[in-house]
Amino acid sequence: MKAGERLARDPNIRAAFREADERLNSAWERVSRRTFLKLTGLAGGGLTLAACSVKGTDPVSTEPGKDYEFNEFVNVGSDGTILIYSKTPEIGQGIKTSFPMIVAEELDADWNDVVVEQARIDTAVYGRQRAGGSRSIATAWNQLREAGAAARLMLRRAAAETWQVPVDECLTANSVVTHEATGRRLTYGELADKAAALPVPDKAELRLKARDEYTLIGERITGVDNEKVVTGQPLFGTDQSLPGMLYASYSKCPATGGRVAAANLDDIRALPGIRDAFVLEGNDLVSELMPGVAIIGDSTWETQQARAHLSIDWDETDASKDSLSSITAEAARLSKEPGAEVLYEFGDVEQAFTGAARIHEAFYSYPFVSHAPLEPQNCTAWYRDGAIEIWAPTQSPDQAIGSVANVLGIPREKVTLHVTRVGGGFGRRLMNDYVCEVAAIARQVGAPVKLQWTREDDMAHDFYRPAGYHALRAALDTSGSLSAWQDHFITFTHDGKAPVRGGDMRPGEFPEGIIDDYKVTQTLLPLGTPCGPWRSPRSNAIAFAVQSFIHEMANVAERDHVDFLLELMGEPRWLDPGNPRAMNTGRAAAVIKLAAEKAGWGQPLPEGRGLGLAFYFSHAGHFAEVADVSVDADRKLTVHRVTVAGDVGPIVNMSGAENQCQGSVMDGLSTTLGLEITIENGRVQESNFHQYPIMRMHNAPIVDVHFIQSDYPPTGLGEPALPPLAPAVCNAIFAATGQRVRTLPLSKEGFKV
Amino acid sequence: MVRLDVNGRQHELDIADGSTPLLWVLRDQLGLVGTKFGCGGGYCGACTVHIDGRPVRSCLMPVSAAEGVAVTTIENLAAPDKTLHPLQRAWIEHDVPQCGYCQAGQLMSAAALLARNASPSDADIDSAMRGNLCRCGTYQRIRAAIHSAAKAINATGGES
Ligand code: FES
Ligand code: FES
């Protein structure tokens, strides 16, 4: 099968985007609620103890002195320890702290009593257990609040029974139930045995807190694993170790889709420290198992060193032949032609352009980029008696289990997967190719084995953020307002039919819905290089073109950028009424105003220094950013400060939330300044950080974060602060120098960083 | 046979290839997995350890060159009684980590900086931390945490 077709039919790449493409929040809430209700409903329906069983033993015994699971999220020990399970992988987004905070808030637990453990993977019990799409907080919010509230009510009822007083008189705070009238108090630990014997309350009995009752949500809480991180404890995938564990490397064709025609396996087997070398044919899915040579040895170093002696003849008949230089030339040529198909059309664009006072055009492009999480892909597995146990740094554990079962041809029940801490996700680890590789290796080896990719493996075998090209055209009416918008979007296809995932313009992408006369056409270029979700898919790139071009239009109109943008937002309204994940122009205007105010918009600045503004809406988050940039005579660029204003509803953990915004800005800036993946003959040319220069500390600006904590339901923060960064910086460069940047990265546009 | 002094403990290891990077000996043979592999080429700093107090990229250091010197890893940054180093405390207080993968290396570079410069300026921090990448972008908090650890150390008369 040809490189592109193989990718087009890959179910895991599709699955990675499915959620992000799901527009209705409520649909997801329904899913997770049903799951929890089933659990409690089961308990309430007579099997009282099923959901408050003695941990790990017979559910009908309630021996004192044991820990009781009130439900699958909370476990109160007789010693007062409150164990909260966090159900979603921790990839650096802070979920292992913010999820338990939500449970602890409704439980009225003293945070000092709380310990957090990673929940087992069981989507029948927990619902969604994936880290991606900035969906975790929005989908789990009610589920976690109810879990905490149910356990709290059981503790209050236990106290009421003990004291023979009405439940309403039993109040809770800091892991203690008190009866004010009589001054009696019992700790949660003291009540645990009794509470565990009570039926789990029905959901209708729960009263969730109002926002002004919160004592924990919205506070600054340091990460629950921080002490382990700073003392070097074995938390990550690559830190796992098993008795008698062997080490593995896996070499695949540098052009995606190549097969092993021949390899000098006997030479490799003869090397010191090497136990075995063998070919895996794979199942022809790039997101699962592609052909390659596995080398098994006694240490990581020996298996990596052996690769220097490995010589593989690749059959590249079906491999990618992509060449970026010819792709770029073709895109530039196509940009001068009309798009091959109309993707979206609203109003009457032709008419609007005919009647326009001014028309302006520009061509924007951005490159392929890699995820490059700092922990290279790795995974540990042990195959025994037809079953496999896996320790995986993955963002999508449930999907990984399915993929492994598929690769090994065993039922899902035979796959046990433990989620480790993940050394950076950014969307890369929604794909589980490295998990499948070690699974196939482990079956052959028959001993515990750890697969470790090198940095070079990681950069050569990514699911890249696709490049893209936008031929933009817009009109101003006689009053200097933006009156028409046209985008010829040139992107890629694997199968000649649909655009690649992550290189597709979705309905509702800004500025759709904002400008009445609006048209997007699309032309597809063939591609055999794998693409996938990269932090804030699509928006991370499209925002650069769209928000830079809006600034161009403001300049053509000789108007202030803030005024121009606010006028564009118009009256406060939802762009897709009834959809809580849609854009709201009132929320947009509010963050634009706040960012401008906090950044000192309009103040005079010295020569060579400028402020740049951009807004973007993605992942249900409204974000505006102002970059303060100077460019010296040598074209040396300094980003002094980035002011961020965002509205994602109430903030759960203020420290974690600011950290996500700071990280998104740094990630966006790093990519804008100097990152690009180039491809020749199907091979990625960059191999390590010397050619893929992630930003370092001396280039890091101050990031000043402000939230509007509106009353809308909370949504996620892993992604939406990223898209406005690139256009904010490029708009600031224009303000500082008069030079318009229309191609990224900046280092290749003559700027020194 | 290679003789190593790691975190004050002596090890005699059966390693045939003296060019094996110290990083992999620490991780695979001594089980000291706090020191991380990020690039293997000296670019990211995730593998930073102290050699006689100086920050060194252990992925580039042949184990044979680590004989006769004192190797210190992140596992030994806290005092023997487990009292955290002021930098570790500052890291927790400032909630520095995101994914956390780079942080052992960041801390080792920062500790070496504070050992020779008790009150580093922003420029001193930039230059000392230049070899350490943070893919998650925690730089602002790392800088703030180094400053507050320096203050804490100076306030207690240089005792960590
Ligand atoms: S692993 Fe040593 S510098 Fe990156
Ligand atoms: S915290 Fe993730 S690389 Fe630094």
Question: What is the element layout, followed by pairings?
Answer:
The complex is a heterodimer of chains A (about 750) and B (about 160).
Chain A lengths: L2 H6 L2 H11 L3 H20 L22 E3 L4 E4 L4 E5 L8 H13 L6 E5 L4 H4 L9 H28 L6 E4 L2 E4 L4 E4 H9 L29 H5 L15 E7 L6 E5 L1 H5 L4 E7 L11 E6 L2 H7 L5 E4 L8 H11 L6 E6 L2 H6 L3 E9 L11 E7 L2 E6 L4 H12 L6 E5 L13 H13 L3 E4 L2 H6 L7 E9 L5 E12 L23 E10 L12 H18 L4 H9 L15 H15 L9 E10 L2 E11 L5 E11 L6 H21 L4 E2 L2 E2 L17 E6 L17 H13 L16
Parallel strand pairs in A: 3-4, 8-18, 16-17, 20-21, 24-27
Antiparallel strand pairs in A: 1-2, 2-3, 5-6, 6-7, 8-11, 9-12, 10-11, 13-21, 14-19, 15-16, 15-18, 19-20, 22-23, 23-24, 25-26
Chain B lengths: L1 E5 L2 E5 L8 H8 L18 E4 L2 E4 L12 E3 L13 H8 L9 H14 L5 H7 L10 H17 L5
Parallel strand pairs in B: 1-5
Antiparallel strand pairs in B: 1-2, 3-4, 3-5
Helix pairs in contact in B: 2-5
CATH class of the largest domain in chain B: Alpha Beta
Tell me what the CATH architecture of the domain at 335-369 and 465-749 in chain A is: 2-Layer Sandwich
Low-pLDDT runs of chain B: none
The percentage helix of chain A is 25-40%
In spatial order, strands of the major sheet of chain B run: 2-1-5-3-4
What is the CATH homology-level superfamily of the domain at 335-369 and 465-749 in chain A?
Aldehyde oxidase/xanthine dehydrogenase, molybdopterin binding domain
Helix and strand run of chain B: EEHEEEHHHH
**Given the helix and strand composition of chain A, which structural class is it?**
alpha+beta
Which parts of chain A are unreliable, with pLDDT below 50 for 5 consecutive residues or more? 23-66
Largest interface: A-B, 67 and 61 residues
Could you please say which CATH topology of the domain at 335-369 and 465-749 in chain A applies here? Aldehyde Oxidoreductase, domain 4
Number of domains of chain B: 2
Q: Reading side by side through the largest sheet of chain A, how are the strands ordered? A: 10-11-8-18-15-16-17
